[in-house]
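Q: Convert this sequence to structure tokens.
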Amino acid sequence: MRTRSPLVAVVSSLAIVGLLLLVAGCDTVEPTPTPTQTAYILPASPVVLPAVPTDNAAVDNLDNNTGGYTPGAMPTVAGADATITPTPQPTQVALEMEFTAPDGLLIAATYYAAVRRPAPTVILLHMVGSNKEAWQPLVGKLQTAGYNAVAIDLRGHGATGGTIDWVKAQQDILSVYQQVSVLPNVAPTRISIIGANVGANLAITACAALESCRSVVLLSPSLDYFGVTTGDAMTSLTIPALIVASRNDASSGEASARLNGLGSGDRRLILNDGDVHGTNLLTSQPDLGDTIIQWLDAH
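A:
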């Protein structure tokens, strides 16, 4: 596990002040891609983050989704402060980031910034054995449509490293969600989660534990991936859920149809012919990205 110098605590406060002053004057900016760089490194010492607000004038007082959740389900996590090296500029499009898991593991991520800020935000959870780059067919479309996208490498995958542990991974997602919600330029009442394969199951369990999750998009979910079960969590969901799978996908086709019937929120099921699975659906179904954005826009 990677560790950081105690000097981080000193740099943190100064960097945060500088970033907030910079952001305060930003509304609409024109993106000019620059080399990707580490933008946010969140500290490992646990703190309790402030509750996600239920009303935010900066995002037109949009209502927060409630109902069917367990109040206080969020764990104590790290991340109230951030060390920013160097300070991101408003014109940057993609920034490499790291979030701190409850056990101190650094979760690698890429933040794709929307042009208009504050913006609704989507957290992207990849398939088992994959990484955050699997979302490349979707992230550009999300940015163009006005969404921030935060793609992470699950523990034991990609740049995150560590050992695969699906129990801890469920806590990781809750922690990342809360840390994302307090980032500059993120509209905290408009955060959705999109997952594929086991990432879809993690998205379901996370949104079942969160009061503020706006909606969820599931690519090839299952009733049980590696012990991450979804039946009870999906039953408790009252938020909108878009489910996309292939009819002949043995691990997901039938399960997706069953999950679609659970819970009381708005549901839409798309079953494609064939057996294409997970994020591969984004390339096999060229219009799927547009369909996902239309769903997010409507919800």
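The mean pLDDT is 77.
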